[in-house]
Amino acid sequence: MIYVIKFIYSFVLPPGIFVLLLTLLALWMLWKKQRGFAALLLTVTLFLYLSSIPLISDPLMRTLESKYSPPAQVQGDCLVVLGGGATQGTPDVDGEGNLGGSAANRLITAVRLHRQTGLPVLFSGGQVFADSGNEADIARRQLIGLGVAEQNIIAENRSLNTAQNAEYTAALLKEHGLSRPVLITSAFHMPRAVAEFRRAGLTVQPYPTDYHASAASAAAWYAGKLAPSPGAIETVGGVLKEYIGSLAVAFKGN
Q1: In the predicted model, what is the mean pLDDT of the chain?
Q2: What range(s) does the DUF218 domain occupy (predicted)?
């Protein structure tokens, strides 16, 4: 019964409610014999529906997340962590400002690897929007709170996108005499990030983290995979953004 209720809810809340309303509108147009508009509306509705269900979003996400795997052994002289969103003025344990979910997952991976290797941590990310937090400044405070010594932290707090992450990080690494970065970012973001760092003249060891698509979901089947959800549509949008961004990097490289 719980899963039946969840499935019904998916068509009461966005984006499912929009799929339902657009379908009803298209059927009404068919009843009014407006077949051309109805066909167009049904096509748009179908694309909206397909882009909002896990049955589509999870396999799309795995096309990116499967490109790199965490290495068995870290080989580098610095852990480079890329930001992924932050808030400002929000309460935290030892101050204000929090990293977004993906950025926080990347930070946790960096701390764990720092404890294993003793390598310094360079966090790259600035204040992207007027109402967002400065990612590297927040990360510095949180790294210290998690036990990383301040002398082992390098903050690159100016970059606004992945291209600037790579450009400004390359300059900081050179300034600190470092040349073999271990790149830590979300698995879905890693292909574009590697390309941007390569374009900036850096060869990195990729260490993907923050996986979104469960490996088990490739074989599992249940009705919920056909239920529209905000998370699925966000995933599809994120995957498309990464592929378009990768194309842009390739175009800039030619």
Answers
A1: 93
A2: 77-245
